[in-house]
Amino acid sequence: MNRLRVLLVDDEEDLVTTLVERLSFRNIEAMAKTTGAGAIEALKAEPFDVVVLDAKMPGMDGFQVMQIMKELRPDIRIILLTGHASHECRTKALEAGACDYLLKPVDIEALIETMTAAVER
Amino acid sequence: MVFRKFFPVGRRDKAEEQEENLSRYRRLWRFSVLITATVSLAPLIILAVTSFFQYQKAFKAELLEPINRLTGVAKHSLEFFLEMRVDALKLLVSEKTFDELVDSEMLARTFRNTKRAFGGFVDLGIIDSSGRQISYVGPYNLQGAQYQDQDWFHEVTLREFYLSDVFMGKRRFPHFIMAIKHERSNGDFYVLRATIDSEMLNDKVRSLNFRPSSDAFVINTSGILQTPSKTYGKVLSRCPLTVPPFSESGEVIEITDDNGHQYVLGYAYIANSPFIFMVLKDPARLASNWLSSTRQMAVFTAISIVLILILTMGTSSYFVSRIREADQKREAMLHQAEYTAKMASIGRLAAGVAHEINNPLAIINEKAGLAKDLIAITEQFPNKERFLKLIDSISYSVDRCRSITHRLLGFAKHMDMREETIDLEVLIKQVLGFLEKEAEHRNVQINIDVPPDFPSIVSDRGQLQQVFLNIVNNAFAAVPDNGRIDIRMERRPEDRVAVIISDNGTGIPEHLMSKIFEPFFTTKNGYGTGLGLSITYGIVKKLGGDIAVQSKEGEGATFVVLLPSG
Hints:
heterodimer, A: alpha/beta, Rossmann fold, 5-stranded parallel β-sheet, B: alpha+beta, Beta-Lactamase, Heat Shock Protein 90, 5-stranded antiparallel β-sheet, 5-stranded mixed β-sheet, 10 helices, rod-shaped, disordered N terminus
């Protein structure tokens, strides 16, 4: 299997940069973005396999970003990451085209497993 | 619901509030009874009193009128009886000459004719002005009898007419006399004297008194019976009644005789005679009808009053109790709405807090993870093992925080009504998660027994969490330290499941068993709202289930929650 290329989007810079570093130790190529606009630009430039997207961000929220990304790359795998779990939120995410939905704080191994499963699906 | 603990703070306030509420409903009840009873009883009492007086008036009129009438008739009749005889004697002296009257044969003939015409005459005599009886016809030998010294003779010479009382005299039977003075042409005078058998008077009085219930008789002005009396005996006995005051016409009075008997007395003075006609009626006998009617009326009124009072009190109790129930329902609904709103706010707050905490928690988690990765890949890291242990400890704490925030989010997300498939064992374990620290500190043992084939059910997760949280909370409050709570699940017929929660706490006193699901019933004086079990009951019913409780004071309580499985 090719090396996974992941785009991590979260307004918490500390979180995404740490995750990028940790994923690199696990042979996963990851890029961190802290805004929705930056993430969309990155997706246009790079052929990522999967996007891990925070649902709640200032400016464009995760759902808006996901909608644009899906228009740009209908086949892109998106995993929504959030600190807020509600049934509505989960349903909305899956209906909008997300592959999965994870609640912060997430275990790194569980994140990798979810991303791998999403790409293989 | 706490059966064991008492919270002195606020206890007095709660008791005072309950007492004030009760007092308000009692006042309302009393006011209702007073108004309704007054409105109902006032016309009845006014009617009864008015009827009593009107009936009394009518009865008196009915009682006195016949006596009054009889007295009047008797007065006229007796006066006529005497006048007829006096007139007969007057006719004799005016029609007959003195010589004719002193003639024995003529006097005897005249006596026979008079006796035949009027009856009752016993004898007839002529007495000259010196008081000597100069002529006599009758059964006695009274020719030449001297009356000069007798009172009656003096009186007749003065007043020209004399009518005696009834007396025995020389004739040895009750009689009375009539005497008339007549002036002769020579200036002298004589007296015509007749003796009349008082039996004639008796017959006359008897004929007047046709009512067997009354006693009619004649007395003289000294109170001596002139005719026999059914009540007071023979002629010439003393009548124990006080001689009534003189009156021109007949009178009716209430009187008590010397023996203490009360009577209604009708009397009439007979003109130009010493006689007083009297008729007695026993008021007790007369009043028997009156008393019977009055008693009937009193009994009817009393029964009506009692019935009205019972009905009024019953109706007031019913309506006040309905008002109280409506007030309680309204208050319970308000409290429930308030409670639900409060729970929703708590849910939103919990969700907000969980969300805000989750982000820094994620950073801590990743930083710790990165640190661990870096230490792991560095060959010669000083105190490597110790650092890895410290990082594991941080990760463990993050996990604990994560489970807390996830539980809070789980609680918040189930506030809305939604049916879903629920594993009751998982749900109850989630609920127990909120209480695990208390169970740990107080060493409360919790056992969960679920049969292997126990089914999942379709219900509302949030509502069920609230139900079991309330019951388990109460069980925690009731058990002592080192206590035990058993949670057992069973399949029940008709596609139902039962969750049985037993504790070995203080139990519920028998007299409170019927009240524990009532809104505002609490034993947590000043602490509980009294709504926990009431809301629990409402939710279980809403979910199509049922809830029951069994308990013995001092031996714990068992709550059985029945739920439809699908």
